[in-house]
Amino acid sequence: MTADSFYGEVLADHNLHPLHKHELECATHCCKGLNPTCGDNIELNLDIRGGVITDGSFTGIGCAVSQASADIMLELIIGKTPDEAKHIAALFRKMIAGEASDEEIDELEEAGALQSISKMPARVKCALLSWNTLEKLIDEK
Ligand code: ZN
Prior knowledge:
Layout: H1 3-16, E1 29-35, E2 40-49, E3 52-61, H2 64-77, H3 82-96, H4 102-107, H5 124-140
Antiparallel strand pairs: 1-2, 2-3
Helix pairs in contact: 1-2, 2-5, 3-5
């Protein structure tokens, strides 16, 4: 499979069957994120207990890239500590800037499918929206 078809497949899969798009009543933290350039609007909910992100979800509306990116991000950060989540967010940002090494992209697991965004300037803000919201939530916690 080429990188581009993998990108399309992952995007479609997370939009048709999001794993983490739902309300989360037990959430200890929530934060809204907005990308006015595209109209993406998400709310991120995290349940942080005992220093670990034990659960998380998002709600909202937006383009395929912003929605898939949020779903993939939650898949990666649930079960991690806030510091580990910030490390993953920093790697993701580096990848989108086109500056990550192959090892770093491997560390991003499925999020690595979004690496072609680094060549699509118009989509960068969409891909980063959930990650920006995550960093804001953790810093304000
Ligand atoms: Zn968007």
